[in-house]
Amino acid sequence: MRARLAGWTAQAVAGRDGLSAVPEPSLHVTLVFLGSTAPADIDRIWAAVPDVDGPPVLSGTGLVALPRRHPRVFALGLADEGGRAAALQRAIATGLGEDEGRPWLPHVTLARVRKGERVAHLATDAPGIEPFAATGVTLLRSHPCSRYEVVERTGLDAQSS
Predict the structure, then answer these.
(1) Is the peptide bond before 71 cis (omega within 30 degrees of 0)?
(2) Residue range 2-155 in CATH 3.40.50.1820
(3) Phi, psi of 149 (to 5 degrees)
(4) Which of 74, 112, 118, 159 has the most CB atoms less than 10 A away?
(5) Dihedral (CA of 6, 114, 13, 34) sign
(6) What are phi and psi of 148, to 5 degrees?
(7) pLDDT higher for 15 or 126?
(8) Which one, of 121, 132, 122, 84, lies nearest residue 104 by Cα?
(9) 55/132 Cα distance (integer angstroms)
(10) How many Cβ atoms from other residues are within 10 Å of residue 83's Cβ?
């Protein structure tokens, strides 16, 4: 799925000034953005990941500009079959005291607008992807230029509660 999304994004942003594609290894669905977090908090963060009854199943819904009027990113919106991803996101956010009080928008960021640039919306159809199972939760440390470092990872196969 990542390869298909990266290939689509490369074509969609080709020749478009002001846009940069998110590299394939960096494509992900953010459950909770934690900002600056001390390494000492990793155990507390990881403890907030609940057991689940099988992995969430997600599918693409269309291209989304965030924010709508003057986008900073273009993303693939995702549908959450059965609400498992939203329940997982809510449990983690609540457990960490990071609940924003607004609905979570499941998406994969595909391209970013370069700082100081304004771009028109992408006039193209969203990439077609088949429904996929989100089989793991990964704690990532972000670095400049959409580069991420894996800190911890766990599977989301059916776990016992």
Answers:
(1) no
(2) no
(3) -115, 130
(4) 74
(5) positive
(6) -125, 145
(7) 15
(8) 84
(9) 10
(10) 10
pLDDT confidence of residue 157: 64
Q: Please, are residues 110 and 121 in contact by the beta-carbon 8 Å criterion? A: no
Q: Are 25 and 143 in contact (CB under 8 A)?
A: no
Residue pLDDT, tens place only, 121-145: 877 788 878 899 998 888 888 887 7
Alpha carbons 108 and 57: distance in angstroms, whole number: 14
Which residue in the block uniquely carries the two structure tokens 């992900």?
28
Does the pTM surpass 0.85? The reply is yes
Q: How do residues 40-87 score in pLDDT, each as one tens digit? A: 888 888 888 888 878 999 999 999 999 988 999 999 999 999 999 999
Map tokens 């990542």 to a residue. 2
